[in-house]
Specification:
This protein is mainly alpha-helical. Helix content is 76%, strand content 0%. The two termini are 17 Å apart.
């Protein structure tokens, strides 16, 4: 299929509800970011104020869940042939889909938790053992081994994080299709979508854009300018998420729903399968 990469930037701005969607879904994180920056500055004068950021974390997590729910809704509307972002309604359904999407990401994250645990135990054990040894050379060797283990675990962590970020959106598309967590981890569907250039290229574009945003803002933070840009980061990430899941859903629709519908269990709504999309 031919993926229109311009949709990555064009799709999020279509429709009559664009302002409302961004005001709610991106506006709340912007407010949280502004409050967080203000607290960071005030905590320089009054250190204990930094603890107020703990209050913001649950709200941020809830927003993240709702984002995932909205991305699932984008995927389903794309399957139905819609070319505009869906409206914000049925908040209960949005939260439910977001929670299921969160479970998908948590399952993918299990190896990351294991790596962190193994790395921490190994590093502390080796470095602690090195400090307990009376012989200086043996202690230095164990300390060096501990650092080496830490570096290896860090590389494995980063490598798996990239793999996770690559396959997880396909799982979200599969869950949105069948409304089933088991479908989200179908190896056949993951293979048929993820191992294609139609999916790999837009994913690389999105990943590159997200990385560039983070690097630029992080660099400018050293000069305090980044703190002023920090509130805009949620808008950029939400924009990328909306556009990217529209592209991912199109690829999934073509590779799984349309190409071999007989190999799949029926979902709740297939009315848009294979429908030609027009703007």
């Amino acid at each position: 299929m031919s993926v229109e990469y311009g949709d990555l930037l064009d799709y999020p701005l279509r429709g009559d509800d664009t302002v409302t969607v961004f005001a709610v879904m991106a506006g709340v994180p912007v407010v949280l970011a502004i409050v967080s920056v203000v607290i960071a500055f005030l905590s320089l004068l009054i250190p204990f104020l930094g603890i107020l950021n703990l209050v913001l974390y649950p709200v941020g997590l809830l927003v993240g869940v709702l984002w995932l729910g909205y991305f699932v809704r984008i995927v389903r509307s794309t399957y139905a042939g819609e070319t505009k972002p869906p409206a914000l309604d049925d908040w209960g359904g949005l939260l439910k889909d977001g929670l299921f999407g969160t479970v998908v990401y948590l399952v993918y994250s299990i190896p990351l938790f294991v790596l962190v645990g193994v790395g921490f135990v190994a590093f502390v054990g080796l470095v602690g053992g090195a400090g307990a040894l009376a012989e200086e050379s043996a202690g230095a060797a164990l300390g060096l081994l501990g650092i080496l283990v830490f570096l290896v675990i860090s590389v494995l962590y980063l490598a798996y994080a990239v793999v996770m970020s690559y396959f997880a959106p396909v799982s979200i598309c599969s869950y949105a299709d069948d409304r089933s967590l088991s479908a989200a981890f179908s190896v056949d569907r993951l293979r048929r979508v993820a191992l294609t250039t139609d999916y790999a290229v837009p994913w690389a574009l999105v990943a590159g854009a997200a990385f560039a945003i983070q690097m630029i803002v992080g660099f400018l933070t050293a000069f305090l300018v980044g703190y002023l840009l920090q509130p805009l980061v949620p808008i950029a990430y939400f924009f990328l998420g909306v556009g990217s899941f529209y592209l991912f859903a199109q690829v999934y629709d073509e590779r799984v729903r349309t190409s071999a519908p007989e190999s799949r269990a029926p979902a709740d709504d297939r009315s848009g399968a294979g429908r030609r999309r027009t703007r």
